[in-house]
Amino acid sequence: MSSSVAVVGFYEPWWIQIIKALVIFAAAFAILPILTVYERKLLGRFQNRYGPNRVGPFGLMQPLAEIVKFATKEPFRPTTSIGYMFRIAPMIAILTAVAALALVPFGDVQHIFGQRVGLYGIDVSIGPLYVFAFAGISFYGIMLGGWSSGSKYSFLGAMRGAAQLISYEVSQGLALVGVVITAGTLSLTGIVHAQRGMWYLIPQFAGFVIFLVASFAETNRAPFDLVEADAELVGGYFTEYGGTPFIAFMFAEYMNMIVVAGIATTMFLGGWLLPFGIHPPGWVDPFVVVAKMMIFITFFIWVRATLPRLRYDQLMSFGWKALLPLATLNLLVTAILVVS
Amino acid sequence: MSSVVFFVAAIGVLAGAIGVVVLANPFYSVLALVAHLISLAALFLLLRAEFVAAAQVVVYAGAVMVLYVFVVAYVGGQDQPVRSSGPGLRLIAALFGAALLCELWIAVIGSSLKSLTEHGAPYTPGFGSPSQIGQLLLTRFLEPFEVASFLLLVAAVGAVILARRRRGLGDEDEERLPGFPAISVAEVLSGRVPTGSMAEAAGLGYEVGESAAGTRRQARGGW
């Protein structure tokens, strides 16, 4: 692979691409409800209680009951809201989250029924920029949702979301640039292959920490969940939402968490690679990736149960005055080390 | 397939551009501009300029327009539509529009309309990829690139200076509320975070910053 040619791998037949899209979509939406109950169970354990334990064995059927409950609710909206925008906003949120998921590689190229199939949605030459493009659009889901609700709480939540997303997107991107410089490619599968010797967790540790912290802000998770600070804003930008649009927003949030965990796994934890030169058969790869993603998701939940929410000015000054200079410094040092 | 995408994106581009000018509500106007930019990115994708498309969405739709939406939504103006501009402005607008059109036509005709054949312009592998664009920026277009980055630097410094002159950006009271101590990262990590409660402001707090003896008293119980 010469450096001037984009590493886009190859093109699969259209039917394989459709099957891949369906499989990833179905798997993601099967994982999402499990994640919600997983988070509630863990949070319960952190707080010395059981968490949901009524529906099904160990409360595992809880999300099913809740989805039925939400889906059978009467759809309504405030009279001050703007109807079509109010309905479009959750769709934008969930669409962009799902689209970003397509980038996460779950495994290497496999030979299935004589066809070469890459175990990822797409492998684009622009790599992480694709995720950032959809993260940029996903902002409009939050913004339109908050603005069109016609309520002060929603509006303030959306405004906070806007400022927060912009501030931390920069640090998040700069942290990834360090990895891209080290790997010498933007393609995510290429980055995983470049980590055969050593995962970038070690040489890019500063970038990893910066990316992780910025990801908390980007996914609106605690301790940066000012967007939906329930003590002050009731629910933030989805205060006025109920029923399935609310589920759309909630799933979009969990989906963003999955995407961030997937990107972090790919960029820093060596994707589907296992340490100590273990090479399992190809079908194990997705399980390795999902296991590594679960580490991040568990960490996200753990932090939510541990840290209190920051004040808004602390959030802003931390993002611009601490995280961004650190990310820039990390990038500069990496560039100098790679070039020299 | 590609022609379907092209027409959908082209309609989006034109409708967005017209919407920016025609819509009376500034918020909708900004949203129309966003739709325009995203459709434009789709057109770039059809031209296999993946990096330009991503940059278009990340920079314009994802950052610049976010600030536009932010300001328009904050300042409001939904109730009072934009005043119709005077005849002078209209004339200038028409002049600038005509100048831009001339420029575009010069660029299009300058390419001697090679791409208007049956097969379209030739495509070389790697065209529009980030690595190729990076190489071009650092070799052939180095000077324009440096000039543009210098321009951006000047703009950034100018914005800071303007903000400082108007509001006093460097003041301490901007980053902390009066009466509350500032908080550093080290304090967050060590757990010595001021609670910011009224009890603390009144001096009743059990855990205020660094206590005199340097010892930390843990708040008993949980939450």
Task: List strands and helices in order, with pairings.
The complex is a heterodimer of chains A (340) and B (223).
Chain A: H1 14-46, H2 62-71, H3 83-101, E1 105-112, E2 115-120, H4 128-148, H5 152-183, H6 188-194, H7 205-218, H8 230-233, H9 243-268, H10 285-306, H11 312-339
Antiparallel strand pairs in A: 1-2
Helix pairs in contact in A: 1-10, 2-9, 3-4, 3-9, 4-5, 5-7, 5-11, 7-9, 7-11, 9-10
Chain B: H1 2-22, H2 26-46, H3 50-75, H4 87-110, H5 130-138, H6 142-167, H7 185-190, H8 198-201
Helix pairs in contact in B: 1-2, 2-3
Keywords, separated by commas or semicolons:
heterodimer, A: 340 residues, mainly alpha, 11 helices, 2 strands, 64% helix, disordered N terminus, B: 223 residues, Four Helix Bundle (Hemerythrin (Met), subunit A), 8 helices, 61% helix, globular
Brief digest:
Chain A is mainly alpha-helical.
Task: Write up what this structure looks like.
The complex is a heterodimer of chains A (340) and B (223). Chain A is mostly helical and 340 residues long. Chain A is built from eleven helices and two strands. Chain A has helices spanning 14-46, 62-71, 83-101, 128-148, 152-183, 188-194, 205-218, 230-233, 243-268, 285-306, 312-339, and strands at residues 105-112, 115-120. Chain A has a two-stranded antiparallel ribbon with strand order 1-2. In chain A, a hairpin with a 2-residue loop joins strand 1 and strand 2. The model of chain A is unreliable at 1-9 (pLDDT under 50). Chain B is mainly alpha-helical and 223 residues long. Helices cover 61% and strands 0% of the residues of chain B. Residues 171-175 and 205-223 of chain B have low confidence and may be disordered. At the A-B interface, helix 4, helix 5 and helix 11 of A face helix 2, helix 3 and helix 5 of B.
